[in-house]
Structures are given as C-alpha cells and as structure tokens.
Amino acid sequence: MEYKLHNGSGGLCCKGSSRHDRQLNTYDWLADIPGNAIECDMIEVQFKNTRKGYYLNSNKLELTKGDVVAVEANPGHDIGVVTLTGELVKLQMKKTRMRPDAEIRRVYRKARPVDMEKYAEAKAREHETMIRSRQIAAELELNMKIGDVEFQGDGNKAIFYYIADGRVDFRQLIKLLADAFKTRIEMKQIGARQEAGRIGSIGPCGRELCCATWMTNFISVSTAAARFQDLSLNPQKLAGQCAKLKCCLNYEVDCYVEAQKRFPSREIQLETKDNTYFFFKADILANQITYSTDKNIPANLVTISGRRAFEVVNLNKNGSKPDSLAANGNTPEAPKPSTDLLDQDSLTRFDRQRNNNRKPMRNGDNTSQRRRHRPPQNRNRRGANGNQTPNANA
User: Fold this and answer.
1) Where do the domains of the chain lie?
2) How big is the chain by its Cα radius of gyration, in Å?
3) Measuring CA to CA, how many Å separate 216 from each of 20, 252, 253, 345?
4) Is 137 within 8 Å of 144 (Cβ atoms)?
C-alpha cells in the first residue's frame, strides 16, 4: 500500500523521502512514477557525512531509498546507504559535473549481516585512530590539522581528512600511519567550510548548517556583501562555525544592490534655504534615507524617501533650493518601525505586557475604590451569632 501526503499543489510520496538523519538529503519527486527505477541503472550512494558516489546497478537489484548496499572499492568493497534511484540520479550527476570518462563502479549486493559486522568494527576504530594520527602529526611538526577519519566498509583503507593553509609534505606521515594502523592510507585535503559540513552543527539562526544539509559547492564570500547590507563589520558576528564568513551573506546581497540604486550617492549633500544636510543612515529595503545637519554627529535628523532625495538633488543642480527636505514643506512622517524577527528571543518579552491587563479606572469609581480598600478596623465586624457589631471606635 502506498501512502501519500496531499498538500495544496500535489502530493508527497513516502518512497521519495527517507529518514532525515543523513546530510545532503534529497527528496525524490519522481519516486511515485511507474517504472522510474527501471529507466536508470545508476544509483546514488552516501557514505559517512557528505561523501557521495554514483554506482552502476549491473545486477538489476531492486533497490529503494534507505537500503544498505556493498559497492565496489579499490581495494575491496565499501558500505553505504542508497539515497537516490531512478531518473533523478542523472540530474544529480549532471549537477555535480561528473565527467563522462570517469570510472563507474558497480553495486555488489545488499549488505549482509557479516558485512555489517565488519563495518561496525571499522567505524568503532575511527575516533581512536583520529586521536593517534593527530599525535603523530604533532610529533613530526606538520602544520596541518586532521579533522576526521573514515574507514572503508571492509576496513582495508582509511581516509584522513585534513586542513592546512599551504602545501604539506606528509610522505613520512603516511609511512608512520600505515605502520601504526596496518591499513592503506589516503590523505584528502579539505577546507574549513567542508569540515563544518562534514561535522555538522546548528547555526545562529537555529537551523542546521546549510553546508551540512543542501550546499554542494562553496562560493567565496567577501566583506563587500556585508557592506552592501549595512551590517556591522564585526568578525564575531559575521563568522560562522567554520571561522569563515557566513555563506548566507550572499543570499540577499543582490536584493540590496538592486535596492541601493534607488538612492542617491552618499557623498552628495542636500541644500535647502536654511541648512546643508549630510547623509547619516539609510533603511535600504524600506527606501528611507536619513540626513543630518552635522557631518559627524546626528543633529536635526530628517528622514525622507529615496524619491524625494532625488528631487532635491535635481533642484540643487538647477540652482534652486527647497524650503525643507520634506515634500511641500510638511514635516516628514517618521518611518514605521520594522518588525524584529528576533524579538521573540528577548528575555524580557514577557515583562512588557505585565501591566497591560489592568483596566483603566473611571472617575466615578474613586469612592468605591477607597471603600474597597479601607483598613479592617474601619469596617463593621460580625459577632459569633452573625449579628453586625459596630466598632468600638464608632
């Protein structure tokens, strides 16, 4: 029986999705099409963290997303999880720019219990191997950091992922590692962003890192992206978990560059009959720009729209000066405060509405309020028999 989750635009097939415990998970939106798995003999297999490979299903095995398979390796075999089948694999191979002349390896079989035992034994050695390899690299005084170790499924090869600023001569290191661990050694250099994607973490936005979920290629990020968005050039806030500039700085920079075209240059001074105004700050997305009568400190701040700023600039070019920066001489309206999406994280967000539930007191209620709050000694008390007894002071 097939289960489908219908939404407004279609349905989500259960075959197309899998457990979201693997990085770079892809939803197979062609999974519910009949004969989709038969159209393509290639499958996508994911290994530890973000390492993926494409293999030929030459034995025509009935494979679905989530199956654990044994695939061809050099030497021996490796164990991975099927993450994609069918026609969508061709699109993924094209996206990763896989070369047509690249060697295509085969899928041997579905993993057996014996294969899984060897796989578990190899994975149990990874952490201890990484610690020992770091000690050996430190003894050789190599300027490198070994960030992760991945054993092949049969334990015949170990891949050491390392980070280094420059070129490292690790020939002596490979000999010592091979003697210490009795296995074939492969060294693979990665960058700081790739290391963060392999390890995985939670970003300051509260979501899992983009490099660990969907990003497959890394575009360089410069501080110019922060300047275009008027962000504070604070390294602690602009840096991500990898100690590099956050990749998300590139997401909205094009929108800000396009919006800044609706503003005059910040170097232009606006002349009125009374004052000369200098640029102070700008709300780019709201198309609001604020000017000050002093070049260094905020004084007599006036906020106008970008369109009004261009009008004043054109008037100054023609030799005329308006009475004020505001249109028609009216006082400019203050811009509406923007909604802070992070305001819900404030520790004092519940204190603001503490006194808002009190009803306002009407003028006629003053007497009743005084009567309600009289001291107990001024009120009549009832005796034991229930009769009302006047106060002794009455």
Assistant:
1) 4-111, 120-194, 219-258, 263-329
2) 34
3) 17, 19, 20, 31
4) yes
Neighbours of 309 (CB within 10 A): 23
Q: CB-based contacts of 148: which residues, under 8 Å, 6+ apart?
A: 49, 126, 130, 160, 161, 195, 198, 199
Fold of 120-194: GMP Synthetase; Chain A, domain 3 (3.30.300)
Verdict on whether the full-model pTM lies above 0.70: no
Interatomic CA distance for residues 326 and 333, integer angstroms: 9
> Is the preceding omega at residue 375 within 30 degrees of 0, hence cis?
no
Q: How far is Cα 23 from Cα 21, in angstroms, rounded to an integer?
A: 7
Residue type, 55: Y
Residue with tokens 């198309």: 287
CA distance 235 to 293: 32
Tokens 């008027």 correspond to what residue? 230
d(CA 237, CA 228): 16
Neighbour-count burial of 99, counting CB atoms closer than 10 A to its CB (0-12 exposed, 13-18 middle, 19+ buried): exposed
pLDDT of residue 196: 85
- Identify the H or E element spanning 333: none
Measured between alpha carbons, how far is 150 from 350 in angstroms, rounded to an integer? 48
Instruction: Give 241's contacts (C-beta < 8 A, 6+ positions apart).
Output: 196, 201, 203, 209
Query: Using one digit for the tens of pLDDT, what is the confidence trace for 27-56?
Result: 776 766 666 666 678 889 988 877 888 999
